[in-house]
Amino acid sequence: MNTAARSRSPLGRMSLPSPGCRICGFTSRLTRQDTIAEVLLEYAAGWQRLLRTPGVSSRRTGASAWSLLESGCHVRDMCLLFHNRLDAILGQSVIAPRLSVGADTDTARRYRDEEPQQVAEELGRAAGAPARRLAALTDDDWDRDGPRLSDPRLTVGFLTRHLLHDIAHDLARAVRDSSQQ
């Protein structure tokens, strides 16, 4: 990873390059392909630490903000959906019926009922599987796009960096919110 001009990431011990997102510090263009799997696992570990904190609540911190538990569930499901899409782009499977990762009422209700320890374990597995796939990609794989995606710029590399930014962004908010409680 480029060592020039770094800012602190939400993980505390891992620095991310800047300039980038002013909220979470993530800069996708400086995240190298050979480190992406490791970064994904680091973010998942950060989420697992938060979810394993005693007293994790499903209580929301604000009207539009998810609770730490709900956000952790969402990140787990984003990793599952990403792995499914990655497999489809690489020709390993077809894109399965839509996996809901949104904030609809049924999803949020289900998320609030889950156990934080179990979500932490599931999140680790959900991030580990695509991380292993990402670590084994060839240079050509990173530029592949999905035949069912409408924009050829939506390559494996782009989608992967988008996932990492989403996870980093949610993690930064969760760390900030948990430190304010």
UniProtKB/TrEMBL annotation:
<feature type="domain" description="DinB-like">
    <location>
        <begin position="64"/>
        <end position="168"/>
    </location>
</feature>
<dbReference type="Pfam" id="PF12867">
    <property type="entry name" value="DinB_2"/>
</dbReference>
<keyword id="KW-0413">Isomerase</keyword>
<dbReference type="InterPro" id="IPR024775">
    <property type="entry name" value="DinB-like"/>
</dbReference>
<dbReference type="InterPro" id="IPR034660">
    <property type="entry name" value="DinB/YfiT-like"/>
</dbReference>
<protein>
    <submittedName>
        <fullName>Maleylpyruvate isomerase N-terminal domain-containing protein</fullName>
    </submittedName>
</protein>
<dbReference type="GO" id="GO:0016853">
    <property type="term" value="F:isomerase activity"/>
</dbReference>
